[in-house]
Design goal:
This is DUF2470 domain-containing protein. Keywords: Membrane, Transmembrane, Transmembrane helix. It contains eight helices and three strands; from the N terminus they run ααβββαααααα. By secondary structure, it is mainly α. Strands 1-2-3 form a three-stranded antiparallel β-sheet. Helix 4 crosses helix 5. It is elongated and about 80 Å long. The mean pLDDT is 91.
């Protein structure tokens, strides 16, 4: 079994990050969830699963330690730089040190397709039940066959779960749109997409935000 590719270069990475003390402090405060006034911080170890940081707070000489886990874990050494850059940008945004990147366009993601298929199937089954006695009944025979094996309340329960989950997810997307200054038109697209498709929209929007953060850092903004 091979070793951890990031842990193998932990010494070099810790030495490199020692040149960025402000970044390490932001890691401790935001990702390490340390509410005290952190005066200094140091990275002592890093691997694919997370990094270990030591820090001191203002007015104290005691050194404390915090472990920050990577979610998801790094797949290899090449992921270290973009992950740390993204974490730095998010920490500084949440701590009020920098402004969140702006999202100016709505983008479709292939991730949406799974939910689109699921929602289409749910709609088909619902129509199958309501149009079972109409001239369109033959088209809905497969749907009604499926429903015959399910409890009578299954459709109502499914739509209730969709309304509950997608409703809360669309509110979170609205928050993200406001935070990242999408504007009305782009924001409306994201909120409506979240109402219809739910979590995949959140996932892709956060990925777009992460890409914008890294792009901003690479341009030196």
């Amino acid at each position: 079994m091979g070793g951890d590719p990031v842990a193998d270069k932990s010494g070099f990475l810790c030495m490199y990050m020692s040149n960025h003390p402000d970044t390490l402090v932001s890691y401790v405060r935001y990702w390490g969830k340390v509410s005290a006034q952190v005066s200094s911080a140091k990275m002592t170890a890093i691997d694919t699963k997370g990094m270990t940081l030591t820090y001191q707070t203002k007015g104290s000489t005691e050194t404390k330690e915090v472990r920050v886990e990577f979610e998801p874990p790094l797949l290899g050494y090449e992921e270290v730089k973009p992950r740390l850059m993204g974490m730095k940008a998010e920490a500084e945004e949440e701590l009020g040190m920098t402004r969140a990147p702006q999202i100016t366009s709505f983008r479709y993601s292939p991730k949406f397709m799974t939910t689109i298929v699921a929602m289409t199937f749910l709609t088909y089954c619902t129509l199958a039940q309501s149009l079972a006695s109409s001239e369109y009944a033959p088209f809905f025979v497969p749907g009604n066959t499926i429903l015959s094996y399910l409890p009578s309340w299954s459709l109502q329960f499914s739509w209730g779960m969709v309304a509950f989950c997608h409703g809360f997810e669309s509110l979170y997307v609205l928050y993200l749109c406001k935070k990242h200054r999408t504007g009305f038109f782009v924001g409306a697209q994201y909120v409506l997409a979240a109402l219809m498709l739910g979590f995949p929209v959140i996932s892709d929007m956060r990925k777009q935000v992460q890409d914008a953060r890294i792009d901003s850092i690479m341009k030196g903004k």
